[in-house]
């Protein structure tokens, strides 16, 4: 099984991260907040666990997110991590 690596944070110009149904394990790295141009984030249907990092709130260009069907811990609310002025869609937790 693969895991998400902190190296993702080095992909500064990345606009779409579409990694659903890949059996990724582990947690979303804090470095994901460095993807300042990211518009789409889809990580649904993996085996990601842990909490949803507040670093997602740094994704100011984000317009679509899908992170459902993983093993999240704790309580997540849209307002706690989605601060993008551009985000208009639903959050699929």
Q: Can you describe this structure?
A:
- The chain is mainly beta and 93 residues long.
- It is 4% helix and 20% strand.
- Strands 1-3-5-7 form a 4-stranded parallel beta sheet, with no helix packed on it.
- The protein is globular, with a radius of gyration of 12 Å.
- The mean pLDDT is 79.
Q: Tell the overall outline.
A: globular
Neighbour order of strands in the largest sheet: 1-3-5-7
The biggest sheet, with number of strands, parallel, antiparallel or mixed sense and barrel status, is: 4 strands, parallel
Could you tell me the number of beta strands?
7
pLDDT < 50 stretches: none
Strand content: 15-25%
User: Helices and strands: which structural class?
Assistant: mainly beta
Mean pLDDT: 79
Amino- and carboxy-terminal Cα gap = 22 Å
Based on CA atoms alone, the radius of gyration comes out at 12 Å
Helix content: under 10%
What string, H for helix and E for strand, traces the elements in order? EEEEEEHE
Q: Number of helical runs?
A: 1
SSE layout and pairing:
Blueprint (H helix, E strand, L loop, with lengths): L15 E3 L6 E2 L13 E3 L4 E4 L13 E3 L4 E2 L5 H4 L9 E2 L1
Key traits:
20% strand; single chain; mainly beta; 1 helix; 3-stranded parallel beta sheet; 93 residues; 4-stranded parallel beta sheet
Give a brief outline of the structure.
The chain is mainly beta. Helix content is 4%, strand content 20%.
